Structures are given as structure tokens and as C-alpha cells.
């Protein structure tokens, strides 16, 4: 086994971390379900804020982005930045219709 | 590499590896063979698309409607668009010339992932087969136009589901090629081949690849949503279920407008190779051209909604996208200025590749300027969905990418096949191509300004004379294409042997024999100067 691999060098998180992240994801999902009962506005804003947070947790811990080098992190942030710009420009339509 | 095949002088073409005949081609991971696989399959689809296009023009002359029904006409323009966009223009230059020349131009023996490269071609063929199957299965050929706009694409009984799945598979081919090229450029450049010593074709492929991997997934997800909506009625785009059809248009154009730059950027890269070679001087403004490719890729990804000015989008968004559209014209103009400046005080040698490259610049300028016109809201609302739009995008896609493809093929043909074509025949093909092209598409610009709507089966008598001129143009254009292709196919089989460097080029491919050996270089070259320094000779002198 290659001990110089970054994920090994920095060490994987223990089961405790994974379980804590999983609990967070479940709680966020329950919150989203709850918000959907409060009306469309609350549901949309809940989705817009909590879903990216959930995705970030999955990227960061389950997909091991936390243990990657700056190049791979940079590529992910370029994609995220692009997505944000797409969202912003689409809202220039939706918000002013 | 088999040295006996090299001594036979046919390089990789003679080196079949462990398998023979067709299997040697279908299982090869050599980037050059894969490039040629793409070339022949793409040209076959292109000619089918041309045939459908000529038939569409004939329908407009057939005022008694004997040829096809209105529904078949709808299917024809859909098939024409799907074939030309997804099977020819999008993969076009990157898949053929990118595959063949990118590793050579940066001094590598192959792309970073050769097997993935072959898989990309199989995805491409699988997508093509699915697209063809969609014509004859289910409810018949899709009649939505290549854009598959909702809500019609959700309601029509034709086989839209299979057609969008075909486009989905083709998207995978495109993404895998993009990933392969980016990795190749980052990891496999020869010693001394710094970023600013790379030929400009590599820069154009690099910027294109980023668009491919950032924008294509948006299309993939959108098409999956269309399939889910058709199969399960989930109500994302269908207004009767609370969906938003404009959301479909946003998502579709988030990919499909950058796709225009996937199509044109490698074409511009190829022209940037041709201009210095036939001017015998370094390209004017290397850095400006390299950065303009990247900025076209960046800004070009932010202008998609100029396709939607009359869709009911908010006025604020109309203004934002109109402004952004004006900005993207700047890097394109930088390129045109630099190509023309490269010719200035050059020792110009008008060979067929330069002849076609100059034609590209002329036609692309008309396409680009009519595009800027439409970026202005006040003009767009009048010409939207008319023949003016059809004329404009054919000037960009065919006059631009198509003619650049022809120029690139003429430039690199001797290197790819080790044989030379008849220059007289190629110049003879140019006349019907050029005259026919302008009769066809300039005629469409005029018809559009007069008010002829696009995608209409019938037309008012006032447009008939215009349609006659345009249709005759399509015949001339088809004649030119046939002469061009016959000349090249004959040359690939029987043409006289080509020299290693017939044009006096100085980038790395011209230091190799024609055609190159299987792994390109006996030894990886060491690069110590830029790509277009004619006084120093070849980049690997």
C-alpha cells in the first residue's frame, strides 16, 4: 500500500465522524420535509440553503474532498462557481418576471 | 512500433498491431487511428445531413406538396439539426484533428487515457445508432426541432424519448473526450513545452474541453428530466402540472450556447495554425489569441438566454443577456484582427488550406456580425424565428466551423494519410461551394428580413422567388461538397505520396514523417522555443 497517498497521510475520519455527518444529513432532510408543510416560499428557501449544505457535507467527508490537494479542490470550486453564476443569471429572469 | 512498417513509409497506417483489417481499426487505442475513425464516421453522417438539407429545400419548391407531408417536413428539420449538431459539428474538429494532432503537437506519444478515448468513439457510435433508431421506432421520427422545446416535446407522440437519450449518450462521448484532452495537456507535454510554447490549436482544444466538461452535464440532466417527464409525468417543465417551460429553455441553452463555442473554438485554433504557416511568419498576438480562446469559453457560457428574448423572459434578464452578448464579440474580433495581421507583410503562399481558411474568415465575419445584430434586443424581436436566424447560424456553423474543418483537413491531410490531393480539383470544388453557400444562406438572411418564418412547411407567394434562389444555392453547395470529398477520398487511396513537410510548417507534426509512426516520436522531443518561429526552423529542430 502506498503510504504517501494524501488520504492516508492525513488519516481517514473515524466512524464517529461519518455517523455524525449522516445524522446531520437526516436532520436536514427532516427539516426540509417540515418546511414543505409551511408553504412554497419556505420550501424553496429551505431547499436553496440546506440542499447545498447537504451536498457540501457529502463532498467534504464521504467523497474525501477534505483530504485532496489544492488542484482537485480548485476544480470542484470552479464547477461550483460556474453553477452559482448560472443560478444568479437565471434568477435575473425568474425574480423579475 | 514496427520498424519494418516505418521503412515501408506508411507509418501507423501500416502498423495494424495484433489484429488485422477492420478489427485493427475497431480495437485500436492509437489516437491517430481513433481520429480517422471519427473522420470517416462523421463525414458519413455529414453527407446524410446534407442530403436531408437538400430535400428540405426541394420541399419549399414543391408548392403542390407531392414530396412529403407537413409532419415529415417537421421530422426532416429535426433530423437535419440533430445529425449536424450532435454528430458532426460538436465533435467535429476536436474528435478528428484534436485526437490526431493534440498529442503530436505537445510532443506526447498518445492521449492520457487511450482506452477511454476509444470508449468515447463507441459512445459516439452508440448515440448515432440510437438517433437513427428513433426515426423508425416508437411513434416515428421526432418532430420537435433539434432543441426539443417543452412543452411540445412532452406532448408529441413521436419518439422524442429515444432521440433525447441518443443526445444524452453523445454528450458522454463529448465529456470523456474533454476530460482526456485536459489531462493530456496538463500531464503529457514534452520537456520545455511550456503553456506559452504550445501551438494555438492546443489552447483552443483546452478551452473547448473545459466547456465540454462544465456545460455538457447540464444538458445531460435536462434530457434525463425530459425523459422522466414523458415517462412518469413528473411536472418539471409541463405548465399544466405546475412546471416551467422556460426553465427547460434556460437549461437547454446553458449547454447549447456554449456548445456553439465547442464548435467554433477548435475551428479558430486550426485557422491559427494555418495562417502563420502560409504567411511564413509568427502569428500576430499569440498571447492575445490564447487568452481570447479562454475568455470566449468563459464569457460565452454566460450569454445563453439571448436565444430566449421573445420567450416571455423578464425584461431585466433580456437587458443583462443582451449586454453580455455584446461583450463576447470582443475576443472573437481579437482573433480575426490577429489572423489578418499575421498576413500583413508575410510571404504569402496561397495553397488550398489558406484559400479555405481565408474563406472561413470572410464567412465567419458575416456570421459574427449578424450575431451581434441579434444581440441587440430591438433587432432580435423582429427577426427572431425567421430565416434570418437560420442564415446567421449557418454562416457561423457551416461557413465558420464547416469551412475551417475543410481547411484543417486540407492542411493536415498529407500528414494523416501520407498522400497529397489534387490541388486543382480542390480549388475547383471551392467555386460551387462558395457561390452555392452564399446563394443559400445570404438568401436566407434576405428572406428572414422580409419576414419568412423558419420551420414553416409552406410559404406565401411573396417569398417564392427567394426560395428558388436559395434552393439553387443548395444544389451548387452540394455539388461542391461532392467534388471536395471525392477528391480527398481518391487521394487517400491513390494520391501521390506526400513529403514529411509539404507546407513548410514549423510545429511538431511537421518534424515527423507522413504519416507518423505508431507512437509518434522515436524520442520525446525537447522544446526550446515557441511554435511559430520560422527563422529557427521546426519547434524540434
Secondary structure layout:
The complex is a heterodimer of chains A (97) and B (541).
Chain A: H1 6-10, H2 15-36, H3 40-62, H4 70-94
Chain B: H1 3-8, H2 11-14, H3 21-26, H4 31-61, H5 70-89, H6 92-105, H7 114-136, H8 152-155, H9 160-187, H10 200-232, H11 245-279, H12 286-299, H13 315-343, H14 352-375, H15 377-383, H16 387-417, H17 423-450, H18 464-494
Helix pairs in contact in B: 4-5, 4-6, 4-7, 4-18, 5-7, 6-9, 6-10, 6-11, 6-16, 7-9, 9-10, 10-11, 10-12, 11-12, 11-13, 11-14, 11-16, 12-13, 13-14, 14-16, 14-17, 16-17, 17-18
For this entry, give a set of tags.
heterodimer; A: 97 residues; mainly alpha; B: 541 residues; Cytochrome C Oxidase, Chain A; 18 helices; globular
Class derived from helix and strand content of chain A: mainly alpha
> What's the main sheet of chain B like?
none
Biggest interface, residues from each chain: A-B, 13 and 16 residues
User: What is the number of beta strands of chain B?
Assistant: 0
- Helicity range of chain A: over 70%
Question: Which shape of chain B, going by the Cα principal axes?
Answer: globular
Averaged pLDDT of chain A: 85
The number of distinct β-strands of chain A equals 0
Amino acid at each position: 500500500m502506498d503510504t504517501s497517498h494524501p488520504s492516508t497521510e492525513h488519516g481517514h475520519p473515524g466512524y464517529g465522524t461519518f455517523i455524525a455527518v449522516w445524522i446531520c444529513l437526516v436532520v436536514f432532510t427532516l427539516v426540509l420535509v417540515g418546511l414543505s408543510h409551511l408553504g412554497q416560499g419556505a420550501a424553496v428557501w429551505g431547499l436553496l440553503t440546506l440542499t447545498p449544505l447537504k451536498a457540501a457535507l457529502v463532498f467534504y467527508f464521504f467523497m474525501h474532498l477534505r483530504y485532496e490537494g489544492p488542484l482537485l479542490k480548485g476544480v470542484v470550486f470552479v464547477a461550483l462557481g460556474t453553477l452559482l453564476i448560472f443560478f444568479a443569471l437565471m434568477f435575473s429572469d425568474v425574480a423579475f418576471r | 512500433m514496427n520498424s519494418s512498417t516505418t521503412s515501408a513509409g506508411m507509418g501507423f497506417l501500416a502498423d495494424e498491431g495484433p489484429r488485422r483489417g477492420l478489427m485493427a481499426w475497431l480495437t485500436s487505442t492509437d489516437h491517430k487511428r481513433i481520429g480517422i475513425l471519427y473522420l470517416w464516421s462523421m463525414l458519413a453522417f455529414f453527407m446524410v445531413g446534407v442530403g436531408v438539407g437538400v430535400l428540405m429545400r426541394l420541399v419549399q419548391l414543391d408548392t403542390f406538396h407531392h414530396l412529403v407531408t407537413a409532419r415529415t417536413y417537421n421530422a426532416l428539420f429535426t433530423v437535419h439539426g440533430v445529425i449536424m449538431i450532435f454528430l458532426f459539428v460538436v465533435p467535429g474538429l476536436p474528435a478528428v484533428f484534436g485526437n490526431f494532432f493534440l498529442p503530436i503537437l505537445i510532443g506526447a506519444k498518445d492521449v492520457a487515457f487511450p482506452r477511454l478515448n476509444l470508449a468515447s468513439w463507441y459512445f459516439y457510435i452508440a448515440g448515432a445508432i440510437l438517433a437513427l433508431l428513433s426515426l423508425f421506432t416508437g411513434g416515428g421520427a421526432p418532430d420537435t426541432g433539434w432543441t426539443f422545446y417543452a412543452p411540445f416535446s412532452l406532448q408529441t407522440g413521436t419518439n422524442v424519448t429515444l432521440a433525447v437519450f441518443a443526445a444524452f449518450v453523445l454528450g458522454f462521448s463529448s465529456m470523456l473526450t474533454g476530460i482526456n484532452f485536459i489531462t493530456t495537456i496538463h500531464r503529457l507535454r514534452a520537456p520545455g513545452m511550456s503553456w506559452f510554447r504550445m501551438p494555438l490549436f492546443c489552447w483552443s482544444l483546452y478551452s473547448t474541453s473545459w466547456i465540454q466538461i462544465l456545460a455538457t452535464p447540464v444538458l445531460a440532466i435536462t434530457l434525463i428530466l425530459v425523459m422522466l417527464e414523458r415517462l412518469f409525468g413528473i411536472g418539471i417543465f409541463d405548465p399544466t402540472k405546475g412546471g416551467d417551460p422556460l426553465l427547460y429553455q434556460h437549461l437547454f441553452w446553458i449547454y447549447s450556447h456554449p456548445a456553439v463555442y465547442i464548435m467554433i473554438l477548435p475551428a479558430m485554433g486550426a485557422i491559427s495554425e494555418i495562417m502563420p504557416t502560409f504567411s511564413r511568419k509568427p502569428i500576430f498576438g499569440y498571447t492575445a489569441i490564447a487568452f481570447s480562446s479562454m475568455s470566449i469559453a468563459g464569457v460565452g457560457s454566460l450569454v445563453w438566454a439571448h436565444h430566449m428574448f421573445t420567450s416571455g423572459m423578464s425584461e431585466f434578464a433580456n437587458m443583462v443577456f443582451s449586454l453580455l452578448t455584446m461583450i463576447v464579440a470582443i475576443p472573437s474580433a481579437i482573433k480575426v484582427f490577429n489572423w489578418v495581421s499575421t498576413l500583413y507583410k508575410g510571404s504569402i503562399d496561397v495553397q488550398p488550406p489558406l484559400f479555405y481558411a481565408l474563406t472561413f474568415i470572410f464567412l465567419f465575419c458575416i456570421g459574427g456580425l449578424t450575431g451581434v445584430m441579434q444581440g441587440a434586443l430591438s433587432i432580435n424581436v423582429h427577426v427572431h424565428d425567421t430565416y434570418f436566424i437560420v442564415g446567421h447560424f449557418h454562416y457561423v456553423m457551416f461557413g465558420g466551423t464547416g469551412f475551417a474543418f475543410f481547411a484543417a483537413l486540407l492542411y493536415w491531410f498529407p500528414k494523416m494519410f501520407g498522400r497529397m490531393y489534387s490541388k486543382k480539383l480542390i480549388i475547383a470544388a471551392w467555386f460551387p461551394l462558395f457561390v452555392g453557400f452564399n446563394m443559400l444562406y445570404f438568401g436566407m438572411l434576405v428572406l428572414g428580413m422580409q419576414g419568412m418564418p423558419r420551420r414553416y412547411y409552406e410559404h406565401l407567394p411573396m417569398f417564392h422567388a427567394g426560395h428558388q434562389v436559395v434552393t439553387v444555392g443548395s444544389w451548387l453547395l452540394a455539388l461542391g461538397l461532392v467534388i471536395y470529398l471525392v477528391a480527398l477520398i481518391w487521394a487517400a487511396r491513390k494520391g501521390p505520396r506526400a513529403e514529411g513537410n509539404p507546407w513548410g510548417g514549423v510545429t511538431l507534426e511537421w518534424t515527423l514523417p507522413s504519416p507518423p509512426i505508431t507512437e509518434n516520436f522515436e524520442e520525446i522531443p525537447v522544446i526550446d522555443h515557441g511554435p511559430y518561429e520560422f527563422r529557427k526552423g521546426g519547434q524540434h529542430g
